[in-house]
Specification:
heterodimer, A: mainly alpha, two-stranded antiparallel sheet, 15 helices, 2 strands, 2% strand, globular, B: mainly alpha, 11 helices
Chain lengths: 334, 284
């Protein structure tokens, strides 16, 4: 399907709208919603990319949390400047992911999913039990607020949510660009074929395991950076903030959005966030409604929410008389 | 002499793990799917026991029957609602859909019964005193009941024609279909058997633990650990690993305290490192 010219402008329009949000919408409630949404999108893109090599990672919040803990420890204990701690918060979760993946990525689908679940429980337990380093279930509070100088103008993060909004937005945009570029590039094709025909690809001389490892480490690096934004933003880091259930909701969000394109992951995450906001009024029955909606989406939209317009367009095209010619053309182009 | 008591607790704990894991491994082996709502089957069975014994004060014998019927019906609902329609979409997608179903079920239970832990009286209570040792008699029905269920399952799988069909389906779906085995019917049979196993597990678990809507979530992780450690779909594997994990758990809690957690997961990791396909699983 050839993308129309006007479709190319959609991301820019969305980006422009997002940049303008804090100008018109000061309310801290909405800003924090957007903020968490951006961070969740970063996590979801990581889950999506690992899914494209055929692995489901339910432990994404753990790597997110490891990033947050790294920043908290470096800021509170070592008194390191925030912008120096920021990259380290990406590197440490990536290193841990590399070590864990070295064992776990050799397993297949369900086994890997289970191992990430086990990792969630294990790291959650270590955060509570290792009081000397992680301060147990109390966690770190308060975390010092960063500040930055842009063109001689000093921006204090402690004063409003707006600097955090832009920081999270910039990080989310960078992550999106990274994953969109990869998805279109040769590496993206390789990753996709790892997910689809692993054995076939291994026969052509590609190290499937190395590809999975790279993918996993990259996704955890971004998750750690997102954690570095999250820690000073919440001003508290404690074990209850990073749980297995969050990881599963992220995975479900990606699945609901559609696992064939990074846009699907974003759509799904936005959908879950919107659903969460709408369902806050049903405090008791919220998980019930959420669960039923999820089952229905998964049952009746096999290609996810993002796949729905495509399916509708295909249906309409099938009704047109000369759809066969067009289909052949699109096949050749690929 | 603490060691003997820990040993007996370990036996009854492992037998419940084994029952639960057998039901789970049957489903995961035959359908090649994950079922993350399986912990809620235990919850349903435990609430059935609560209703029959505590609320309606009916005879104790009815509790397992009612629980098994409830669990089988629930299993068939899952089959018709989620697993059969999604049968061509791999093992993990329907598994993730069961997460949604699981949270829905837990909320329904929370709305009906509330979040307070409810009690179910044991079939036999009291202790037998031997020397300076106390043997709690409530372990006795657990041991007898679960051994009975496990041997029934073994008889079914090994000695009956239907059991042969289940095993055939587990090994090769296409070849089994060519032999004239109706997949749809066998799937229903497997759900009913698995419902009976998990129903028994829930009724046996209810007296030694409190009944609340989240009773199954802890058991689910243990059950998955057993199934994956033993090899997916392997019945002897579930048996052996259920006992291993049960003993690691009960001895760990007695002698290591909270570190038993680390110990159990470390144990699983090491087993999977050495044998990625599970202890008794077949390589692919």
């Amino acid at each position: 399907m050839k993308s129309q010219k006007w479709q190319l402008f959609i991301p820019f329009i969305i980006l422009l709208l997002l940049i303008l949000v804090p100008v018109f919408w000061h309310s801290p409630r909405y800003l924090s919603l957007f903020n968490l949404l951006f961070l969740n999108i970063i996590l979801a893109l990581g889950v999506f990319s690992l899914w494209s090599v055929g692995m489901i990672n339910a432990a994404q919040p753990v790597f997110f949390g490891l990033g947050a803990y790294t920043v908290a420890i470096l800021l509170v204990r070592v008194h390191m400047p925030y912008w120096l701690a920021f990259p380290i918060a990406g590197i440490i979760p990536a290193a841990i992911a590399g070590a864990f993946g070295f064992v776990a990525l050799k397993m297949k689908g369900a086994y890997f999913l289970f191992l990430t679940i086990a990792l969630c429980e294990l790291i959650g337990w270590i955060w509570v039990a290792w009081k000397g380093l992680f301060r147990g279930s109390v966690g770190f509070y308060p975390i010092p607020q960063p500040e930055i100088k842009i063109f001689g103008l000093k921006v204090l993060f402690s004063q409003s949510l707006v600097p955090y909004y832009y920081l999270a937005l910039i990080l989310a945009v960078i992550t999106c660009l990274f994953y969109f570029k990869i998805h279109q590039s040769r590496i993206g094709r390789v990753w996709e074929s790892v997910g689809k025909h692993e054995d076939l690809l291994a026969n052509t001389g590609v190290s499937v395991f190395a590809q999975k490892e790279i993918c996993f480490v990259a996704s955890c690096f971004f998750a750690g950076l997102a954690g570095a934004v999250y820690a000073p933003y919440m001003t508290i880091v404690s074990p209850t903030q990073f749980t297995l259930w969050q990881g599963i909701w992220i995975v479900l969000g990606v699945l609901v959005g559609g696992i064939f394109s990074p846009i699907g992951a974003i759509v799904g995450t936005v959908f879950m966030a919107v659903l969460g906001v709408f369902l806050t009024r049903f405090s008791n029955t919220q998980p019930l409604i959420l669960g039923v909606i999820l089952v229905f989406v998964l049952l009746f939209m096999p290609s996810g929410l993002f796949g729905v317009p495509g399916r509708v367009i295909n249906k309409i095209r099938d009704m047109a008389p000369n759809h066969n010619i067009e289909k052949e053309e699109s096949g050749k182009r690929f | 002499m603490e060691i003997i008591q820990t040993f007996i607790n370990g036996i009854s704990l492992s037998l419940i793990y084994v029952l639960f894991a057998l039901g789970l491994t049957l489903i995961m082996g035959v359908f090649d799917v994950c079922n993350f709502a399986y912990g809620d089957f235990v919850m349903v069975a435990a609430f059935a026991a609560y209703l029959v014994i505590t609320k309606w004060s009916l005879p104790y014998v009815l509790a397992p029957i009612v629980a098994m019927v409830f669990c089988s019906v629930l299993g068939l609902a899952f089959e018709k609602g989620i697993f059969y329609p999604m049968r061509n979409r791999g093992g993990l997608e329907p598994g993730l859909a069961t997460f949604g179903a699981s949270s829905a079920l837990e909320t329904i239970a929370l709305l009906i019964f509330g979040g307070n832990p409810l009690g179910v009286r044991a079939l036999i209570s009291g202790d037998v005193k031997v020397g300076s040792l106390f043997f709690p008699l409530q372990n006795l029905p657990i041991i007898i009941g679960s051994l009975f269920m496990i041997s029934l399952l073994f008889l079914f799988v090994q000695r009956t024609k239907l059991g042969l069909a289940v095993r055939a389906l587990q090994q090769d779906q296409e070849a089994a279909t060519l032999q004239g085995i109706s997949i749809a019917n066998i799937r229903i049979v497997v759900w009913v058997i698995s419902g009976c196993l998990v129903g028994a597990a829930g009724v046996l678990l209810a007296p030694i633990s409190y009944v609340d809507p989240f009773i199954g979530s802890g058991l689910l992780l243990k059950g998955f650990a057993v199934v994956i450690m033993g090899g997916m779909g392997s019945i002897p594997g579930a048996l052996v690993c259920g006992f291993l994990l049960g003993f690691v758990d009960s001895f760990g809690q007695t002698y290591l305290g909270t570190y038993s957690y680390l110990f159990a997961f470390g144990f699983i990791m090491i087993v999977l490192l050495i044998r990625p396909q599970g202890l008794l699983g077949k390589g692919r």
